[in-house]
Amino acid sequence: MIWRDEYKIGVKLVDEQHQELFKRLGDFIQTVRSDKEESEKKKEVEKTLNFMGEYVATHFDAEEALQKKYNYPDFKNHHQIHEDFKAEVAEFQQEYRENKFDEDFVMEFSGRLLTWLINHVASTDQDIGEHINSVLEKEEETK
């Protein structure tokens, strides 16, 4: 999974976190699709799931703090999108623990993660960047 500059929203912290998410998800997908032994894949899947559970929450908290700071008008809707995604990741983690390593299930989930991340970063998050950068430009003009 390749990060593209067109995904940048123009807010350094958010862009760095998005890049890290893309990198980790790319590594995850490569592992799942590889010819590695199942035990090795399981370790990587579990490591990625733990990372995603923690990092996604950290990233969303940071992104939402910026939205509040700059009075992002669509904050409630964006927050709900984040909450829904966190619930989906948590649900997958639970199903994974119950079903152990089911390669088809993991592949399906990795595809959903990839689709969600690209769509969210390339579309929804762009509005945040535009809003924050607009506010910052207005602040600069009044100085």
Automatic annotation (TrEMBL):
<comment type="similarity">
    <text>Belongs to the hemerythrin family.</text>
</comment>
<dbReference type="Pfam" id="PF01814">
    <property type="entry name" value="Hemerythrin"/>
</dbReference>
<keyword id="KW-0408">Iron</keyword>
<dbReference type="GO" id="GO:0046872">
    <property type="term" value="F:metal ion binding"/>
</dbReference>
<keyword id="KW-0479">Metal-binding</keyword>
<dbReference type="InterPro" id="IPR012312">
    <property type="entry name" value="Hemerythrin-like"/>
</dbReference>
<protein>
    <submittedName>
        <fullName>Hemerythrin</fullName>
    </submittedName>
</protein>
<dbReference type="InterPro" id="IPR012827">
    <property type="entry name" value="Hemerythrin_metal-bd"/>
</dbReference>
<dbReference type="InterPro" id="IPR035938">
    <property type="entry name" value="Hemerythrin-like_sf"/>
</dbReference>
<feature type="domain" description="Hemerythrin-like">
    <location>
        <begin position="10"/>
        <end position="128"/>
    </location>
</feature>
<dbReference type="InterPro" id="IPR050669">
    <property type="entry name" value="Hemerythrin"/>
</dbReference>
